[in-house]
Amino acid sequence: MSDLDLPHVLVIYEPAERYPCGTPTQVAQALAAMPEMAVHMARLGEAAARGEILLGGPASGRDGRPQGGMVVFRGLDLAAVAAFVADDPVVREGIERARVCRFEPVLG
């Protein structure tokens, strides 16, 4: 069975009410200082170590300013990923909002 045969779920994180403002450097520093972001990254790291994440990372605009990120989960169903995201402190605390949707890779 290849990765393409497994279920995939895409999570798109976008700035929410508590997302910091400022220059790209200020935003990156503010995010790095947030305890919620440290927990967010630790949880994603644990999921990646279990093989549940195909890829993920931050996104930025043309000006270099961070604008959230995305994660592609593999081998988990939509409900499991939605529960994972609902328990994410950056989502719970209004730093980022997340869209969770099925993803059907056709290349790769």
From TrEMBL:
InterPro entries: Dimeric_a/b-barrel, YCII
Coiled coil: none
Domain named YCII-related: residues: 35-103
Pfam families reported for this sequence: YCII
Recorded family membership: Belongs to the YciI family.
Protein name: YCII-related domain-containing protein
